[in-house]
Amino acid sequence: MSEYISHKDRAHVAERANFCCEYCLMPERFSLFKFHIDHIISLKHGGETQLDNLAFSCGFCNSNKGTDLGTFLTDTEQLIRFFHPRKDSWSEHFELIEGGIYGTTPIGEATVKMFQFNDIERILERKLLVEKGFIKL
Fold this sequence. Notes:
The protein is of the alpha+beta class and 137 residues long. It has helices at residues 7-16, 59-65, 90-93, 106-115, 120-131, and strands at residues 36-39, 54-57, 70-71, 80-81, 94-97, 100-103.
């Protein structure tokens, strides 16, 4: 399910994110594909097309997230929500080491797991961009 997002709102979301994925930090200018505007809380789950529910997202993160809101980390039945770019601080939930992104909280761990931040190609690309100064925290 999709909903129209105006060019003005798309531009605002991209600029607010400094043209980087708000989940994995990838700069759009190094992507072969245009980034997406993600509904942080999907329309399917009652999220709305309002600026505080929109995030700038690379295709990998947006595709891996889908309409999900969270996941299970262990055999318990406790659902752990994903990182919310409007409400959470990236550095409180993740650390970036040698191009890998690692969760430092259950929210970070759930997001890393489902968004597949650490596929080898993504780590290698991110590591190079960090070394060249294109990804900064």
